[in-house]
Amino acid sequence: MIAYTCLGTNDLEKACAFYDALFSSIGADRAMEVANRFVAWGKEGGAQMFAVNKPFNDEAASAGNGTMISLGMKTKAEVDALYKKALELGGSCEGQPGARGEGFYAAYFRDLDGNKLCACSFG
Q: What domains appear along the chain, each with residue ranges and CATH number?
């Protein structure tokens, strides 16, 4: 089971502002912080978290080609709303919301550091 997912950032303050606003739109708040290095978000009572951090080796963070984090939503409307919010916050489109095969609805975007995320719903 995945406990948390972590993406690197070169600007922790800017990344946190992006994810504070993005995740507050789906009811997630900051759940853990290590000063000037790491911040994680989660939903109350949930075991899974999403985090951003400055790389431990102090090298530049970079988005991996082919690496993607998927955020599960309950409905298509929630997928649409999260995608729209990400773009409003300065994220970029990697694939507009839509059906991607039978029973799978998704939208793809990149955060401010170029990390690729997917908002999706099944069913």
A: 4-55+63-122 (3.10.180.10)
